[in-house]
Amino acid sequence: MFPRFFGVRVSSARYARWLPLAASLLFVLPVWAADPAALTLDGAIHQAIERTPMLEARRAQLESARQEAARAGALPDPQLTVGVDNLAVQGPGAFTAGGDSMTMRTVGISQVLPSRSKRQAERAMGSANVDLAASSEVASVLSIQKQVADAWITAWGAHHEAMMLQSMRQAWVQDVAIAKARLRGGTGSAAEVLAVRMAALDLENRIDEANAREAQARAGLARWLVSPAEQLLADAPNFAVLPHDEASLLASLDRQGNLLGWPAREQAAEAALAAARADKHPEWSVGMNYGSRVRGLSDMVSLQVGVSLPLFTRNRQDRGISARAADLDAVHAEHDDARREQAAAIQSAWAQWESLGEQVRRHRDELLPLANDRAALALAAYRGGGDIQPLLDARRDEIAHHTDYARMQAEYGRAWAALAYLLPTTETTP
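RESULT FIELD:
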C-alpha cells in the first residue's frame, strides 16, 4: 500500500520527498486542533457576539422600539384650562374679576378622541418598528459572523502559507550545499552558488510576507476578540461542506441578513397608508368647564363636543393617501429588486465556492505532486552534472504552486463563509 498525505496517494519514491512538507503540515494542523487553548472559528465568533458594542446598540434600539410600540395608539393627554370668561372691558369694573355679574373664573378639561382607525394605524406602525429593530439585530449578528470568519480564515491561511514555505527551507539549504560541493569539486561555478543563495533569500522574503499578512489579519481579528490576538488558531472547518444547499438558500431569501428588514419596511409603509386613510375620518373632542361667579350668583358648567371637518379631501387627505400608496408600491418594488439581487449574489457565490473547491483539490491532488516531482528530477539532473537553471525554475514554480495553494485555500474559506452565514440560527435570533 502507498502512503497518503492529505488525501494524495504517493509512491514510495515520492515518500521521502514529501516527508519534510508533510511533517511541517502535520505540525500546523493537528497540533492546532489538539491544543485546547487554540482558537476555533466558532470560538472567535462566539467571543465577538458576546462583546461587540454594535450588538449592545442594536439591543438598545430594540428596547426603544418596544417601549414606543407599547404606547402607540393611546389617547393623547387631556388638556387642563383655566381662565376668566366674560371679562368687562368698559365701565367702572373694566378688567376686574368682579366688575360684572357675567364674569366667571373658569377651570376646564378637554380630551381629543382620535378615530379608532388612526389609533390602529399607530399601533401597526409601532409593531413594524419593533420588527425592524429585531431584524436589524439579527442582520448585525450575521454580519459580525461573516466579518469574524473572514478575518479568522485570512489569518489561518497566511499562517498555513508561512508554514508551507518554511517546510521548503531544507530543500533550499540542500541545493546551496550541492552547489558549493560542485564548486569545490571543480564542476560548478561561483555564479551557481550565488544564484541558489539568491533564490533561497527570495523564499525568506515570501515567508516574511506571509507572516506580515498573518499579523495584519490578526490585528483585524483582535477587534472582535477577548482573548489575545497572538493565540494559536485551531484547524479550519471543512470548507467543502455547507450547512445549506443552493436550493434552500434561494428558497429562503427573506430570512437572510440583507433582506430581513424588508417585511417590516412593508408593514411600516402599510401602516403609514392606513394612517393617511384615517385622516379622512372625523376626529372628536369633548370638554367641560366649571365657572365660578361673584356676588352670590350661581356657578355654571359648560360642556363642549367638537368634531373635525375634513371637507376638502381632494387636495388634502386624498393626496396624502396617494403619496403613501406610492411609497408602499416603491417598497414592494425595492423588496422584489433586493430579492433578485440576493438570488444573483447567492448563485454567483455558489459558483465561486464550487470553482475554488475544484481548484484546491486540483492543486492538492495533481499540481503539488507534479511540482515536487519536477523539482526532484531537476535536482537529480543537477547533481549528475546538469545545468542549474532547470533546478532554479523548478524550485520557483514549486514555491509559486504552494503559495497559490495556501492562498486559494483561504479564498475558498472566505467563499464558504459568504454562504455559511447567510441564514440565522437559533443562537442568532434575539
